[in-house]
Amino acid sequence: MDCAFERQIISQLPAIEECIIKKGSQKYGCSHYQRKCKIVAPCCGQIFDCRHCHNDAKNSIEVDPHDRHDIPRHEIKRVICSLCDTEQDVQQKCINCGVCLGKYYCSICKFFDDDVSKNQYHCQKCGICRTGGKENFFHCDRCECCYSNILKDSHICIERAMHHNCPICFEYLFDTPRDTTVLPCGHTIHLDCVKEMERHFQYSCPVCSKSYCDMSRVWEKLDQEVASTPMPQIYQNKMVWILCNDCGETSEVNYHILAHKCINCNSYNTRQTRGGHTSCSSGISELVR
User: Fold this and answer.
1) What is the pTM of this model?
2) Within a 13 Å sphere around the CA of 37, how many CA atoms are in the beta-carbon half?
3) Which of 53, 66, 76, 276 lies at a 20 to 30 A Cα distance from 60?
4) Which residues contact 86 (CB under 8 A, 6 or more apart)?
């Protein structure tokens, strides 16, 4: 090659690289991730934008239950460049056009994402990539998942706390892309599911029934309601046994049609264990409206 021509090519490399970057800066990907590649599913050989797109498609109600499955993310071996359609082994840069397939790239999870504002990091103990910045999280060995540093000395450990489905929407929590929260009782749930519960005036954990927020003002209103609603003479001396969902204590209290108050912690989040059937849920719903 002529030396002058070679020098000319070398001098143009920055401009060529900038052109490639600009070309690749267009928005590619799906609703889950911004990336410039598609994955070839090792389980069924089909092409998808990401593992969530695969799992949504392969687990839909239209698919035969015997054929439903999740993609084994760590077994992904082939990707297709979204710019030049070149199929290739998993790597960060396209072997044909040179575009970066994802600014964040994990060779273990076979994961690409151009939106690095999520501060992605790979947790070796979880075995998957997390978001939020490694410096802001710690891995709890008993819960077997990553939690915010805020919870390091205060959270209640529950073995394999996130290795189950959300108790509201039933989506698997451990690798969900949605925000999760840890309730004071230690159980985990999607943050938007908690907000949906609150819109329906539900303020107790769907797993253990413990109140997850300060209910003292509601209990005070129930005190007033119970006091202003005397029971008929035939029920005034009736006693029932109750179990408190908040403190776990059992006690014998006067029967009332509205609700039963725990004599140990003053909570109305109780249930009858012996006696007639009644519930305070409808009463609480009215009081918090």
Assistant:
1) 0.72
2) 35
3) 76
4) 80, 94, 95, 96, 97
